[in-house]
Amino acid sequence: MPYCVQCGNSVRAVDQFCGKCGARQPGAGASAGHANDFVSGISNRNAELLCYIPLVGWIAAIVVLACERFRNQARVRFHAFQGLYLFVAWLMVEWVIAPALYLSDYSLSYPFHRVAIRGLQALVLAAWVVMIVKVSHDEDYHLPIVGELAERSVSEQRS
Questions:
Q1: What confidence tier does 52 reach under pLDDT thresholds 50, 70, 90?
Q2: Greater confidence, 100 or 67?
Q3: What is the DSSP string of 57-126?
Q4: How far is CA 113 from CA 101, 102, 122, in A?
Q5: For 16-23, what is the mean pLDDT?
Q6: In angstroms, rounded to a whole number, what is the distance separating the alpha carbons of residues 72 and 152?
Q7: pLDDT for res 33
Q8: Residue 24: phi, psi to the nearest 5?
């Protein structure tokens, strides 16, 4: 059974509009060769959720940002940017901070390095989990630094 692309409500395959939110549904006669067909049946909330899957959500975020279907959906684009920036934060911990800490004075404070890196990893992972919960409850939440960057990215694209 298909679902509404806007709100996720179940609709019949022949329905052109959702009975709950009134959003136009993709037609059954749409061209099969269209590049964005795989995202035509996904709801906005599901697209937002996919952007926060730890370690692989960046793929969904890039698809959302590149897809024509979400071009004018500021909220979905915000979550895509925020999910992408969370992944960048993870990479910063893994590829920049961890090697820098391991290379600095290894013999004196090695246990501190391990605790600091694990703490930063846990912080980013917790942010992913919090955002999954917030998006699944349809709540708008901007993470402290990453959310401001995402909001700025969305507003730059609107102008």
A1: very high
A2: 67
A3: HHHHHHHHHH-GGGTT-HHHHHHHHHHHHHHHHHHHIIIIIHHHHHHSSTTTSHHHHHHHHHHHHHHHHH
A4: 6, 7, 14
A5: 84
A6: 15
A7: 43
A8: -70, 135
Cα dist from 58 to 13, 31, 77, whole Å: 31, 28, 13
Distance CA 3, CA 38 (A): 14
Q: What's the rounded Cα separation, in Å, for the pair 25 and 8?
A: 11
Nearest by Cα to 126 from 107, 143, 139: 143
Q: How far apart are CA 137 and CA 127, in angstroms?
A: 15
Beta bridge partners of 3: 10
pLDDT at residue number 37: 59
Find out whether 146 and 89 touch, Cβ atoms under 8 Å.
yes
Q: Which residues contact 55 (CB under 8 A, 6 or more apart)?
A: 87, 90
Identify the band that residue 75 occupies on the pLDDT scale cut at 50, 70 and 90: very high
Spatial separation of the C-alpha atoms in residues 4 and 9, rounded to whole Å: 5
Instruction: Take residue 76 and report the two structure tokens written for it.
Output: 């979905």
**Looking at residue 158, what is its pLDDT?**
75
Residue 17 gets which letter from DSSP? B
Dist. CA 134–CA 141, nearest whole Å:
7
